[in-house]
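Lab notebook, bench 4. Still working through the backlog of constructs that have no structural model yet. Next entry is a single chain of 58 residues. Request: give me the structure tokens for it.
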Amino acid sequence: MKKTNHLSIRTDKTLHDKLQYVSAYEGRSMSGQILYLIQSCIRDFEKEHGPIPAEDKQ
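Model written out:
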């Protein structure tokens, strides 16, 4: 089974509500939308700066 990590963030109500709206509009859960945004950010970073080396931590 693939190992996963947990990330918890705090937001104010306005930001939470707006993310919920955008997520629903895009057809994603809020968690799915956040993962999409993180992956998009990493792709953009790697396009500009090259691949981020993966570290094997077990």
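Notes after review: Residues 13-49 form one domain. The helical segments are 13-26, 30-49. Flag for follow-up if needed.
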